[in-house]
Hints:
CATH architecture of the domain at 287-443: Up-down Bundle
CATH superfamily of the domain at 287-443: Butyryl-CoA Dehydrogenase, subunit A, domain 3
Strand content: 5-15%
Distance between the termini: 50 Å
Oligomer: single chain
Amino acid sequence: MSEYRVPLREIRFLCHEVLALDDHRLTLDGSEEVSAEEVDAILEEAAKFAENELATVNAEGDARGCKLENGKVTLPDGFVEAYKSYVEAGWTGISSDPAYGGQGLPISIAVSVLEMMTTANMAWTLYPELSHGTVIAIGAHGDETQKQTYLTKLISGEWTGTMCLTESHAGSDVGLLRTKATPRADGSYDISGTKIFISAGEHEMADNIVHLVLARLPDAPGGTRGISLFLVPKFDLTESGEVGERNSLECSALEEKMGIHGCSTCVMNFDGARGYLLGEENKGMSHMFTMMNAARIYVGTQGLGLMEAAYQRSLEYAKERVQMRSLDGPKNPDQIADPIIVHPDVRKMLLTQKALTEGCRAMVYETGRYQDNLKYGASEAVRQHASLMVDFYTPIVKAFITEVAQECTSHALQVFGGHGFIRETGIEQYVRDARITTLYEGTTGIQALDLIGRKTLMTQGKAMTVLIGEMRDTADELSKAGFGFADRLQNLSTEWGELTMSISEKVASDANEMGAAAVDYLMYSGYAVLAQMWGKMALTAKAALADSGNAGDAFYEGKLAAADFYFKRILPRTLMHAAVIGSGAESLMQMSDAGFAEA
């Protein structure tokens, strides 16, 4: 099977045509200006790196994994070399602040680059992306000395970063953490405790690793209100800010994982390690969320990348693999059988992958557009609106995309049949790698509660109302253009609002109704957003085909066919989710705990 090939035309279609990101970037204030031609050049170079440096070591990274010996972690062959190439090519800080060595490019460009790299090699891309999250947190909450000391090294790629939240007894309930921070006379702190599931916690890629560690100061309030955030470098720093002596921390074990074997997922022990307060005391959770919210969008992009990689493999296989004859007569009479792509069930699986993958890509890129406005919006009103929309999109991007990534990678394996279940073809890696994406940075259930609670009910549905208005405008355009599914999008916009109101009324009398509805509401919302995305893509494709120069272009015709498939075959899933929500919490809560026991 061939390695990953970046879908550059698909990416350009979204950037230049559907979302008009070239015009959008002209409205930004403070980012580096970049032309459409320059964007294409960046995308082409990123594609070369993803295809030639990362995709080629993905399978080996999965097979070999990471090794821990005497506190030192060695990475799979090619990983360190790829990181050096990544740093030398200047990819480390493309969207970071130029004041500290970054390039200051819009986030909407960085999103496309990130997609390529995580598709090519998800495990490898975790290392630089965790560093990027560390950069975001320090940039938002560090003092100027910390920025000059840490940001410059992280942005240059000389150092890497991590986020250290989870403890074995606490899981997602971070307020239960036990890691302690004891003040020292010199203003630093002794950090002591054990963190688990720390991705990129120890490795040989960089000269230093900067851990962002949540810990509790003496006499701090209980729960999340008493948590602070600390910078804890692997090597303590000299007075000049350079690497000094080894700090009192170590990787005591590597987690044996289902997937992402090329990423060192560590148990990290901090034994009186010197740390430095980042931001304000007892504000650690809010500071860490600056990093986590960016990470959640990144995890959604991981799901997108795995969907794309699996789709490419299964599509290629379906065209080559011959088995049985088409139900309506031979399509390839010169061969002993027809390629399996002629069979309706195989086509259904391929079209499901295509429709979900391309719809999710549009959602991620749309979120990137709002992230641009949040960071570089020309007015306070633009920035506030962008904040509202990014907040709303984040749990959907993280949870919906990773949930459908489970489905799409499974469809890809099914297309391969028994050959997909063995390691030789490589398709089963995507299924294993995808499984973690619904878990870390907040499970689907946690994201769903965030969406329905904080992002919808607590805001009186402000962001959802904006999206509903956009859906109605798109539906009107689809109707004028003669699309048969225009009414479905129009009706969906009404149903979404009514469904939300019904949940709000139930929650007023029974709080369990929120938890009972949350995941189905998130999935419903995800399918609604994708309907809007596919409506816009269909309009763009039809307009392009009206140009005589594009007549008969299979790419645009494929968009129209995929949009029709989405509205007819996938969007009806919203009816099931609405029915489940309407059934209420009673069927979940009426059984006693004892009733779960086996007879």
